[in-house]
Design a protein that fits this description.
The protein contains 3 helices and no strands. The protein is an all-alpha fold and 91 residues long.
Length: 91
């Protein structure tokens, strides 16, 4: 079985692992743990290195989009949690 070509690249691969680890942590009602944060930071480090050297390709863009998805999912989780804990949110 072969991975999607851009997931063979370390930057989007770490971003994808970050999304998976964040989702697992949130599913179990935990804040993002060290594994989720380390994958996110590694993806950011790899992307920054590429941007610094002008080495931008489809895999780099894929990694940025995956990090964006991670941030949106985390923000939606926090907004949902705030709404449910707010008195007006409890019906």
């Amino acid at each position: 079985m072969q991975l999607i070509p851009s997931l063979q690249d370390p930057a989007p691969f770490h971003a994808f692992l970050g999304i998976s680890a964040f989702a697992r942590d949130l599913w179990y009602g935990r804040l993002p743990g060290p594994e989720a944060i380390s994958h996110k930071l590694e993806a950011i480090r790899l992307i920054n290195g590429r941007l610094k050297h002008g080495d931008i390709n489809d895999s780099t863009i894929h990694a940025v989009v995956l990090l964006w998805i991670l941030e949106v999912r985390l923000e939606l989780y926090h907004l949902t949690k705030q709404t449910l804990s707010h008195p007006a949110g409890k019906l």
